[in-house]
Every structure is written in structure tokens, then in C-alpha cells.
Amino acid sequence: MASLRLSPSLDALVDALAQLPGFGPRSAQRAAFHLLQDPKRLERLERALAGVRENVRRCKKCRVFCESELCPICSDETRDKSLLCVVESVADELALDASLAWPGLYFVLSGRLNPIDGIGPEEIGLTALVDRIEADVAAGILREVVVATSYTPEGDATAYYLIAAVKKRYPHLRITRLARGLPSGLEIEYTDLSTIAGAVYARRDA
Amino acid sequence: MASLRLSPSLDALVDALAQLPGFGPRSAQRAAFHLLQDPKRLERLERALAGVRENVRRCKKCRVFCESELCPICSDETRDKSLLCVVESVADELALDASLAWPGLYFVLSGRLNPIDGIGPEEIGLTALVDRIEADVAAGILREVVVATSYTPEGDATAYYLIAAVKKRYPHLRITRLARGLPSGLEIEYTDLSTIAGAVYARRDA
């Protein structure tokens, strides 16, 4: 990429932007020039970052990003506290909740199991999840845990591990995974074979 | 896009990131979550923005971004001061200079003429360019001005206007545009017709 080492500060900004998902060195340079073209843009992003650094924390119960001790979901009295959905990321929690299909609460893992990269059960927050389940079971409010990981190798491994760990401790607790099947709005012709196979195995009475 | 209004600060960051070229609301949310996952990432970008705000300014002569009064190009004594290349943006100056084909100096316009959006000669810095040329002509050091705008409607309009303005003031100054023709490494078969036509009209003796 064209760089004249015009300014170490500018290079540092390009490098920092290039770390963002979706950006490479070239688009990061374009974004940096865009920001430099108007001081207001630069200040707006700088203020937004400072605001996030100062105000955003993790919800004490579900670990989603929020600005108070409990997030709007965990403090919503109309939610069904007997249902707990375990997700891999904040983005997954937002997507599930936007589907309006889940009336219960959530728990956000820190990613998914990936032993090759040294991401084990502790790294994704298994202890915190077990503590949460234990407290809810002790309080007699938990009926079901949905392990909402994706049907990818890592998502499968994470689900199997969590399901085994929870079943061992609480054999009478209902524990489920999201259904596997055809996505809405996609022709079978254009659906990948692994998805079709999953939908065949999980076929249900009409 | 899935949003729970979890945090006004987080929303403000997503909105600010979504303004960057190459980002939309969805990728901006992904980038914001990526930054939030590690406080170090957030701080790094914040520090980089502050560094740019504090240190980066425009070169007094060519208006490229730099950290001192004159940029490394303008203060480079080995450059041919009789050749001035007028470009639309800092990115264009970097690209031209990375080609290693231009031994002279530069002048960066603030974009290109776009009367529909109210971008006239003043807005793109014509006065500053004329001042620059006047000073160089008075000092007897200027031989040629290349108007290096692209062969797009706005680039063409900008070039015609600048060429006319400079010719009127300095009829004896050589003023050129970059050659129009086939790009390197692209088969004629896959080249757009307007580019092929331009290359035919500008054909040269072999």
C-alpha cells in the first residue's frame, strides 16, 4: 500500500483501524483520511470511544454489554426466569432477542471452545455459567437451559461439552439445543447438503 | 439490525463507526463489539485518534497530511521543483508517489468540482493553487503543471477548469494531464469501451 511515512501518528491510526474486523490496510487508510478531512469526525469517534470506555460494562447476570449493574433484559420483570439461553457472544444474544422468539433470560459465554488456540472451558466462562445455574436451581426458578451455539465444529464441541457438564451436575434439568433444519426463505435447491441432511434427520410429523 | 438499546454510549460508537467509508450499521456493530472485547483495543484506537488530532496538520506548501510545517516531499532537496503535480486528494498523492514515476512536487486540492453539491473552484482550493503557482513562477522555478485528476466526469470538469484558469494567467507555462490509455496488466478483451476508445484516440507512433 502507498505510504510515505508522512506522519507516525497517522500511521498509528491506520494500524489501529486495520485491526477492526472488516478493515484491511487499504480501507483503514481510506477511513483515516476520511476522519482527517474534518476535525469534527475525528472528535466524534474519539468522544464515542471515551464514552464507551467510561460507561459500558458487563451485566452482572448475563454478561451482555450495558450501562448499569443489570441489563434491560435481566431487569425486565416480564421475562420468564425459568428459561435460560446460553449464547456464544453479545451479537448472538441481540440476534436471538430480535427474533422475538425467546421469552427467557440469557447468559453470554466468552466465545467458544477451541482447544487448538488454548480456549478451554475456563476461558469461555464455564465456571460463571455453572454458578449462575446453581444459584437459579437453588432458588427453584430454573426449568430449562438452551445451549444456543451454532452448528459449526466449534459450536458443536462447545454444546456437547456444556450439555455434558450441566447434565452431570443437574440430571433432572431440561437441557436443549436450537433446532437444526432448513433456513426460512431459502430454496432447498440452493441449501448446502449438510443442512439438508440435518433437516432430514430431524424431520417431524406434519 | 438487532439492537436492544443496551447502552447509549455503545449506540453512539456504532453510529460513529458506521460513518466511516467501508462500514455500514452491521459491520460497525461488529467492530464495536470487537473493540469492547478487550479494553486495550479500545484504548489503542482512542490514543491513535488523539495522536492524530494533536500532531497531524497540513503541509504548508502541498497540503498533504504531515507533522511539521513542510512534509517530507516538499522538504526533500532532491525533488525537481520545476514540476508541480496537482492531485485531488492525499490518497492520490500517495499513490502517484508510490509509482516512483514523478520526480517533482505536489499540490493537493480539496476534492473535485461538483457544482450540483455546491463544490466550486473556491471549495477545492483554486485560490491556494493559483497563489502557489504565482509564487513559483515569480521565483522562476516552475516549468510544468500536471493536472492529475481522474478520467471521470468530475475529474474531467476539474481538469478543464484548472487548465483554463492556469492558461489564462500563465499562457507560457506548460500544462499537462496524465495520459489516458490501457491500464497495465489488463487484457483488452476485459477493458471497458470508454478506456479502449481513449487509448485509440491517444495512440502514438511505435
From TrEMBL, chains A, B:
Superkingdom of the organism of origin: Bacteria
SUPFAM superfamilies (UniProt xref): Recombination protein RecR
Keyword annotations from UniProtKB, A to Z: DNA damage, DNA recombination, DNA repair, Metal-binding, Zinc, Zinc-finger
Toprim domain boundaries: 82-183
CDD domains in UniProt: TOPRIM_recR
InterPro entries hit by this protein: DNA_Rcmb_RecR, Rcmb_RecR, Rcmb_RecR_Znf, TOPRIM_dom, TOPRIM_RecR
Zinc finger (C4-type) in chain: 59-74
Keyword Zinc-finger: yes
Gene3D superfamilies linked: 3.40.1360.10, RecR Domain 1
Family as reported in the entry's similarity comment: Belongs to the RecR family.
Role, per record: May play a role in DNA repair. It seems to be involved in an RecBC-independent recombinational process of DNA repair. It may act with RecF and RecO.
Protein name: Recombination protein RecR
Native source organism of the sequence: Sutterella massiliensis
